[in-house]
Write a structure and sequence with these properties.
Layout lengths: L9 H12 L6 E6 L5 H13 L13 H7 L6 E4 L14 H14 L5 H7 L11 H12 L8 E6 L6 H12 L5 E7 L7 H4 L3 E5 L4 H12 L3 H11 L3 H10 L3 H17 L2 H13 L2 H23 L9 H10 L8 H16 L4 H17 L5
Parallel strand pairs: 1-4, 1-5, 2-3, 3-4
Helix pairs in contact: 1-2, 2-3, 6-7, 9-10, 10-11, 12-13, 12-14, 12-17, 13-17, 14-15, 14-16, 16-17
The structure holds zinc ion (ZN).
Zinc ion binds next to helix 3.
Length: 379
């Protein structure tokens, strides 16, 4: 993996290069970023650069024996650990080694793949993916091996959040007395699910969502789309490149979101509870990614309403159909209820990402909205 192939994060890349080139390499780093942010790609670009035998100023060479193996993820000093479960072929005590070929292929096909993608690729059905105790014995075994050819042995753990308590404690012990010339690269999305003692032992590389401008530029350059369309997709992607690729492949759902939003607001205005229940049932069917995109789309319309009411029209990014709808809708989003409304949708995004039950969640959103829309503006 090259740094140059990762979307955005100019500053983070600079910081990582500085750390390596000034011999300030930490024995454990946590690449923390939402799914689709590129945290995994960043960790692998870092590992490749650290071990590159002809480092350039901004990237690894790509041609030395180490780079060639790192690019295929087959370097003998690169150890990969990730959550797994049993499937048709692996019936007992699943560990990463059983799934290594599939995982490599998944990353090489799309460095931004998510845990949900992985579940499909690994064919583990609905079973919870975990890093179990047997895996931690494998980690210890790998650490006891001598380094074959690299300067640094790399132990990369994707989703350390999925370690059970006993594996987490074993990892913590290792981090307390790290073996020499071994780098731990933890690639995580949910810091609150990690032991605080683990977090305190690692250097944090935080990947904030890629900003919309960087994403828009990327879309225009890579897919040659017009600016307004690229902006639309960048917004719906919410800093998630995986989502971005999916939207481009499957088409932009803006129109569907628009209609769904109008339907919700109509029922919410008049307190039509059966209508809201129907709406909730429809929402529950569309899948998590799309549910999240819908909420992000809703946040965009709230923002546009506020701009219409109070703001600088130059900041507006609405299309003509939205403008038509907002003429009537915008007055209902005002200084007195806007914070609660925005928080309602933001919280819903948070819970969708954490596997909340969509039926309960969306009904709750719908019912709260009926109240919020009736709040009169305080003068
Ligand atoms: Zn190289």
């Amino acid at each position: 993996m090259f740094f140059k192939d990762i979307v955005g994060y100019r500053e983070t890349k600079k910081k990582l290069l500085h750390i390596i080139n000034n011999d300030r390499i930490s024995h454990a780093q946590l690449f923390l970023g939402k799914e689709g942010s590129g945290n995994l790609a960043m960790a692998l670009a870092y590992a490749q650069y650290v071990n590159c035998q002809q480092k350039g100023a901004e990237d690894s060479c790509g041609t030395c024996p180490s780079c060639i193996k790192f690019q295929k993820l087959v370097h003998p000093d690169l150890h990969l650990v990730f959550p797994v479960a049993t499937n048709e072929k692996v019936k007992k005590d699943p560990v990463s080694a059983n799934f290594l070929d599939r995982w490599r292929a998944a990353f090489l096909n799309n460095p931004y793949f998510t845990l949900a993608d992985w579940q499909e690729i690994a064919e583990t059905g609905n079973k919870q993916l975990l890093i179990n105790t047997k895996e931690s014995s494998d980690i210890l075994k790998a650490l006891s091996l001598k380094t074959y050819e690299a300067e640094y042995k790399i132990m990369l753990i994707w989703f350390p959040e999925k370690m059970n308590a006993s594996s987490s404690n074993k990892l913590l012990k290792i981090l307390e007395e790290p073996p020499k010339k071994t780098l731990f690269l933890l690639v995580a999305s949910f810091a609150e699910q990690l032991l605080p003692t683990i977090i305190s032992r690692v250097q944090l590389v935080k990947l904030n969502p890629i900003n919309e401008e960087e994403l828009t530029d990327y879309i225009i350059e890579k897919y040659q789309l017009p600016k307004d369309k690229a902006e639309n997709i960048a917004r719906l992607s919410d800093g998630n490149v995986n989502q971005l690729i999916r939207i481009i492949e499957k088409g932009d759902d803006t129109e569907f979101f628009q209609n769904t939003f109008v339907q919700l607001m109509r029922s919410a205005f008049v307190g039509n509870v059966p209508g809201l229940i129907d709406w909730t049932d429809e929402m529950a069917k569309i899948g998590r990614e799309k549910q999240k995109q819908f909420l992000i789309y809703g946040l965009h319309l709230f923002r546009e309403s506020l701009i219409m009411n109070y703001g600088d029209v130059a900041l507006s990014k609405k299309n003509s159909k939205e403008a038509e709808f907002l003429k009537k809708f915008a007055p209902y989003i005002h200084g007195t209820n806007c914070m609660d409304t925005i928080e309602l949708f933001n919280d819903a995004v948070y819970h969708i990402e954490r596997n909340a039950n969509p039926k309960i969640l969306f009904l709750d959103v719908a019912l709260k909205l009926t109240k919020l829309l009736r709040v009169k503006m305080e003068v």
